[in-house]
Amino acid sequence: MVNYSAAQQLALEKFRASSIEEIAHYSGYPRGDNTLFIPFLGEQYTLDYPSAIFKSVDSSSRKELPVPTQILILHYLTNISEDKETGSLISFKELPGGNIYIQPFTHRAIDPLVRSFGVNPDKLQEVVSHLGGNTNGHGDVGMTLRVFPRVPVALILWREDDEFPASGTILFDSSAPSILPTEDYAVLASTVVWRLKEISASL
To answer: Where is the DUF3786 domain (predicted)?
Structure first.
């Protein structure tokens, strides 16, 4: 089991070293006096500043954000960058150092995407649309989901045919390296696919 305590502590320190005004401005999330409002993959959370305590807005839900997801969100919130989306897509291996970790990324994100939706790509369209995503015109079914205000993720599937099995890929805007470190995109993509599978089962 991975110990996330050191990474979580560093993320908390950086969060508390930033002002809530600065965080809200660069992240694109709305805020109250000492609260940020964080929609994440169909769930609504509040994040207290400076305690960094996440709470579900749905009082009937006891669902807690996993620690790796909390760290991921904190990393996004504390990125101070004015870089804008380019509209140009890149693969994980085109991220800094991504070619070294492409096999784990494929195993954790792309393979589960294909296993879950390759037989019925239209289901991917249904689930991503349910979360507010849009078609992107790539592959046989291509959908883009804005996971963070400044981080769109493109999920693309090709249907099985007589010659080839179903396949897929996950792409990012070319501004991605300025928003999060490469390893965070592996966590992000696997979290997205896991959540899509979860929602698919309930639709």
So the answer is: 20-193
Residue-range definition of the domain harbouring residue 179 = 89-202
Mutual orientation of helices 182-202 and 67-77 as an angle, nearest 10°?
Answer: 120
Secondary structure class of 45 (helix, strand, coil): strand
Which tens digits make up the pLDDT trace of 111-132? 999 999 999 999 999 999 999 9
Do both 42 and 101 map to the same domain? no
Query: Is residue 104 domain-shared with residue 71, that is, in the same domain?
Result: no
Beta strands in 9-95, from DSSP E residues, in sequence order: 35-40, 43-48, 54-56, 89-91
What is the helix (H) or strand (E) element at residue 103, kind and residue range?
A: helix 102-105
Q: Over the stretch 14-38, which tens digit does the pLDDT of each residue have?
A: 999 999 999 999 999 999 999 999 9
pTM of the model: 0.94
